[in-house]
Amino acid sequence: MIYLAHFYESILIDTVDGFQCKSYANEHPEGYVIVKPKYIPQDAIKGEGLKYRFLFEKCFVRFNLFAKKDNVNEYLKQFRQKFPDYIHDSKFHDNWFFVVPKSKIKKVHDSRKGLQELLKVPKNDLDKYLTLVVELVELLTNSGVKSTDLGITHSTLLGNYTPGRSDIDLIVYGKDNGWRVLDYLKDAKHSLLKWKTDEEWAEYYKEHKTSESSHFTEEEYVKHMKRKKYEGMFGDTVFTLFTVEEPEETWFKWGEEKYEPMGLVTVKGKVIDHYNSHVRPGYYEIIDGKITDNHGKDMDVDGSLGIKRVVTYSIPFVQQALTGEEITACGLLELVTPTIGDRYYRVVIGYFDAYVSDRREAEFIKSGL
Amino acid sequence: MHFYESTIITTVDGIHCQVYGNEHPEEGILVKPKYIPTDKISCDFLPYRFISGKKMNRLNLWIDKDELKQYIQTFTGAYSEYIFKSPIHEESPLFFIVSKNNIERIYSPKEGLADLMSMPERDLDEHLKTVAQFVSFILKSGLELKDFGITYSTLMGHYSPNISDVNIVVYGKENFWELMEFLKKNDHPDLRWKTYEEWEAFYKKRNRHVIHKKEIYIENMYRKKSEGFFKGTLFVIFAVENEDETWFKWGEEKYRKLGIAKFEGLVKDNKSSVVRPGCYTISNSKFISGDDSCKDLLIDKIAFYSRDYCMLAYEGETVEVSGVVEEVTPIKGGKYYRVVVGYFDAYLSERKNDEYIRVIGD
Q1: For residue B194, what is the DSSP state?
Q2: Among A197, A279, B106, B219, whose CB has the most other CB atoms within 10 angstroms?
Q3: B16 with B35: CB under 8 angstroms?
Q4: C-alpha to C-alpha distance for A110 and B68, rounded to whole angstroms
Q5: A234-284: per-residue pLDDT in tens?
Q6: Which chain A residue is nearest to residue B118, measuring alpha carbons?
Q7: pTM value?
């Protein structure tokens, strides 16, 4: 059975239980939306070791998958007990996802409509932050992408931004549009548009050690980051672009394939197509995929089947490698059995369960650039 | 029916409303629409704001009266269920109402503050830290956390640090007066009161300079301890009435408009002047000018909807009031007369600039 359930990624959803969630994929199981819970009311579950935020009259726990693992584990344990409806055990993956059952959706914050509403506000009624948002949108439309194919999300949409501190989070609807904007930004000139210099990326690397960046030398990190154009500065405000897939262009349909987890591996291969690497989940099509490390676990891998894809749910690893480049990836090896077509292997980085296991520190994607 | 003033309600139509009284009819909650989506009706004379993902008009009662009148007419057509015809007023003034069915969410100042104060300080931004520290200070008055709330942008989360005010709600008139006493007598290194110059700037806004004598006005304002700065952020403290202390109960009186007039009188009691609607009890009233129908009347109460007139006058002071004169017929007790300042419809007519309360001396 193939489920055809599209819901744009990066969209904010309020649930009847008071959660604020963000959709985490463009394809979803029937009746559910795969999400990452962003904020959960403190009165629902206490968040030992997690940060708190005061939003819209309530104290929320910010659900941060990068918090101390023991704390995330403990929180997740309570979450599963108290809100089992928000966990979906996928029969196609032998894995679990955070979801919002459609019956629990209270409100969907429409990013596309939100931007159109913002663009209608006379400029003299906008504060400095919203003025920047509008100017940035105007710049992006110079790429040829229409403002109706752009959206705003997170605090920009909800209005709880802090000028000078909050990022501007924009959505680009459609993969072609996404690449058009990203390509345009490579050469775009605007007095407010700035990109981090090599030195600034190096500084950032030193100051923001993460489990992802730990796999990179400073030089490697700078090389990877400087060519990405999904995050930049407009004025003194950071902006981030999220590309989402239109219903007719999702790179898989939920239920079309079954995935059998094999274990943690490191693979090497050559990217033959990076077209889908700017969405979540995104992927790199590879050839000559070889397991270089099975991390101490014997796996019954069928050598006659190729490792064809490196898939990422983790934003730091989108747009990480380009066609023609060698790629190294460490993640969960899965045997993929499509409804139609041949079986193959793929490596997945950033499933939710990775954040509560040793895979959190192990997973990465690196280009041989 | 009791429902706390200063609570914020969002409606199923996306309107953000501020509860505009503590006593309400059974049909719903009396409110002032604060932000109105522009998808149905839109007005270029009103300021626009981008809130909750929507382009909204901010209902500013101080725009040109004719433009406001035009907008309210359009609003009435588009949102007729938000207009309330009061059966207890012989000729209903303009009231806005949100029926229970139209409530999307209620933002409670009390619950909001309780949640805020439960947070670790390290997770608060500068604005919220200022709020938490100010509340910690006023808790030294002996009042409890449950006696306080926060409202407007701090509650709703769309504040701008260094720009937005901090709006504190005190539950209970007695509590409020107790807090005012505390603030008169206690200091804090981060607390300062508005200077003469700052009050002077405030005085020059709207039509205050037309109504009040500058020195008296600034002196009246200067003694208020409901407005000042904490860590450089403006704070304003409002009182709301608990259910057992509202100065009137909706439906226990009937009101008949007799005319428009100006009176003066001696303030007997200002205990209820800290809330909205607020009230001064007066004696020795004297007709100054206005409709003939009012000239032989003795006024017992001054009611007002504008917070400008909260705690303006104290017992023993003489005030002058200009507004709508009403005959009040209680279910129990005898008839009396009152002057009302600031019904919504006043802003749609010449009354906008003619209605006021001012202190004219001891």
Answers
A1: P
A2: A279
A3: yes
A4: 31
A5: 999 999 999 999 999 999 999 999 999 999 999 999 999 999 999 999 999
A6: A59
A7: 0.91
d(CA B6, CA B28): 15
Integer Cα distance of B261 and B354 in angstroms: 10
Lowest mean pLDDT, pick from A204-218, B20-34, B60-74: A204-218
What does DSSP say about strands A168-173 and A150-152: parallel, antiparallel, or unpaired? Answer: antiparallel
Q: What is the pLDDT of residues B218-234, one digit of tens each?
A: 888 888 899 999 999 99
Q: What are the structure tokens assigned to A12, written together?
A: 């904010």
Q: Tell if the CB–CB gap between A56 and B156 is shorter than 8 Å.
A: yes
Across the interface, which of A42, A43, A160 has its CB nearest the CB of B158?
A160
Residues B137 and A89: their CA atoms lie apart, in Å, by 50
For chain B, percent of residues with pLDDT exceeding 70: 99
State yes or no: pLDDT of A2 exceeds 60.
no
User: Rounded distance, CA A151 to CA B240, Å?
Assistant: 41
DSSP-derived secondary structure for B124-136: S-HHHHHHHHHHH
Are the CB atoms for A115 and A152 separated by under 8 Å? Answer: yes
Judged by CB atoms closer than 8 Å, whether chains meet at B48 and A121 is answered as yes
**What is the token pair recorded at B32?**
């002032």
Q: What is the mean pLDDT of chain B?
A: 95
Contact A356, A72 (CB under 8 A): yes
What's the pLDDT at B213? Answer: 82
* Structural domains of chain B, with CATH: 8-107 (no CATH), 109-240 (no CATH), 252-361 (2.40.50)
Domains of chain A: 12-108 (no CATH), 111-244 (no CATH), 256-367 (2.40.50)
B119 in contact with A, Cβ within 8 Å: yes
CA dist B247 and B275 (Å) reads: 10
Q: How many CB atoms lie within 10 A of CB A161?
A: 24
Name residues 46-105 of chain B within 8 A of A (Cβ).
47-55
Name chain B contacts of A126, Cβ cutoff 8 Å.
Answer: 50
Check residue B362 and give its pLDDT. 60
Residue B32 predicted with pLDDT over 70: yes
Contacts of A42 in chain B (CB under 8 A): 115, 118-119
Q: Does the structure show a pLDDT above 80 at A117?
A: yes
pLDDT at B218: 84
